[in-house]
Amino acid sequence: MNKENAKIKIDELVDILQKHNYNYYVLSNPAISDYDFDLLLKELEKFEDEFPELVRPDSPTLRVGGEPTKNFKTVAHKYSMLSLSNTYSEEEISDFDARVRKVIGDDVEYVCELKYDGLSIGLTYVDGILVQAVTRGDGVHGDDVTNNVRTIKSIPLKLHGKPPNEIEIRGEVFFPLDGFKKMNAMREGIGEQVFANPRNAASGSLKMQDPNEVAQRPLDCYLYYIPGNQLDIPTHYDSLLLAAKMGFKISKNIAVCRNLNGIFEFIADWSKGRKHLNYEIDGIVIKVNSISQQKQLGFTAKNPRWAIAYKFKAERVETVLMSIDYQVGRTGAVTPVANLRPVQLAGTVVKRASLHNSDIISNLDVRVGDHVFVEKGGEIIPKIISVNTNKRLHESTPVEFITHCPECSTPLIKNEDEAAHYCPNEDFCPPQIKGKLEHFISRKAMNIDSLGEGKIEMLFDYKLVLNVADFYDLKPEIIIGLEKIIPGKDGKKDSRLSFQEKTITNIISGIENSKVIPFERVLFAIGIRYVGETVAKKLAAHFRNIEALGLASFDELNEVDEIGVRIAESVINWFEKPEHKSIIQRLADAGLNMEMDENSSATSNILNGSSFVVSGVFEKHSRDEIKTLIEQNGGKNTSSISAKTSYLIAGSNMGPTKRSKAEKLGVPIISEDDFVLMIGS
Ligand code: IVH
Q1: With CB atoms 3.0 to 4.6 Å apart as the test, which of 223, 251, 282, 420 could cross-link to 333 if both were Cys?
Q2: What is the CATH number of domain 430-588?
Q3: Is 113 in the pocket of ligand 1 (CB under 6 A)?
Q4: pLDDT tens digits for range 69-91
Q5: Using 50, 70 and 90 to split pLDDT, how confident is the model at 642?
Q6: What separation in Å is there between the alpha carbon of 379 and the centre of ligand 1?
């Protein structure tokens, strides 16, 4: 195809993809399937690969990431980014209303909006194209995070209709709650610190250096303000309607109110209704609707006089701190947990609260026996806010943080630059061992799905599996008939877990199948601290085998792209331990992949140039294993069928549309057995 025709095609594809993106992420009303969307995106990618000079600045392909940024550029805000004055009381809202009426009289209208709990962002569009996204910073200067913001699917890269030559709009980037919970669970699994709340997760994500990583996070954004009356429009409400027409995501939860009653009703509705949202709000924002009235009211040095934020009070109660327990997490971090005299708070009975770490205990000067104030804020677990020292007993003494691990008695360590105490006994401390075993079998690691938390606990309790290499010594005759009584919680009956014949067959074959897992996943699975999925891939690709990795010096590790001091040190420390050397040896003896594919017997170039779509359920391999085999043999996996697809590998229960599409395009449909013959394994 010549360049001219390619340009026509690219323009056409960008426009249509933008429309579908808008339908999906802004209107939540998709018009085509994900599969068809991917097909179009792939088509666009193909043209862009061929003619890189034709990549448009608003191309949807930019949403998957761009060049990493070392330091974000600081840029000056064209309109300073002020914050709102806050209040927690309805009385102060009345005072605000009185102040407003004093200046502009009684013909006033307010717009009530939700106060999204994320981080504010200013988006600038020139000729309808997103050119800059800046964080608030100090209100005068902020960080240019454009590449990261481009990955947020609900933010338009190109505006609809005929937007002004240049426009800046403000909004809040936030982390949806469902995605937040998933991400934290995953981070916990690999020993990464979890985010305390969705707001921290959103700001942490926007400050990441690699937009490809940001693109993996499900960030979202509501827009709520166009500074400087750039649209020359009479009301704030109309400006939001117009912004929605331009393609921005504007909340539907907005009300125009003419008096305080309307405002109080909105506050009451959302104090309750907030728990049904898939994002956090920390209050309500009340804005004077008329832009000319806003002008009349003007600004103080810090805030507009035409708006105020009503913040929800975190519910707070007083209770007694009865005792402190210390919990050891999978990473060895020791968390002090307060046992409280049970008390009602925000609809639930609270018995425990996190005390986080020793610094927090000393800053609060909280002591056993104290009357404490407990709050449920944005955090998941209730927090102790302060101590009612008036009620303190004379004989009370400050808390002495434990010095030894409550699980294995090893002396705890505390690094100067970290708040947490750690149990360093990573290989022999029970919760740490169980955490490592669970991580090892997890889907993205060795994918032994016939084992789970309960079974691992049992194998551990019977001392049959004490480290990851022990899985490969399990024999049916050793585990048959094992039984464990699981005590019922909260008055529920006890239950019994036992290993029956069928379970055992599944476990043993799951373990056996894991031997084809490629080296980079084995490396991820063994659970070296800070070696997550991506780092494992990088290390495996660079060092090629476990021996070379184990012998690598600090400098050699640190030189690898994206491997910093923290990871390099962690890898060195891990390989220094003789018990780890023995685990590696045993895993290698069991037949796990300890080197990259090109050296392994399973590898070939036989599938070079062929692309595959794998669909349905298979008998001898899992879908992921087939995909791995494709890559190991030089082929490429794609998610959707096009005329370029070489083969569709079809299992049972494959969707009928896939089959008919393949038939229509003349793509050969092959079985699992055909494929195995093809690669000759
Ligand atoms: S309007 C000049 N509307 O709350 C007024 N702010 O201190 C611009 N926020 O920094 C802000 N939801 O990050 C506005 N519906 C909303 C908001 C909102 C959240 C944030 C924003 C601002 C802070 C107020």
Answers
A1: 420
A2: 1.10.150.20
A3: yes
A4: 667 888 999 998 988 998 989 99
A5: confident
A6: 21
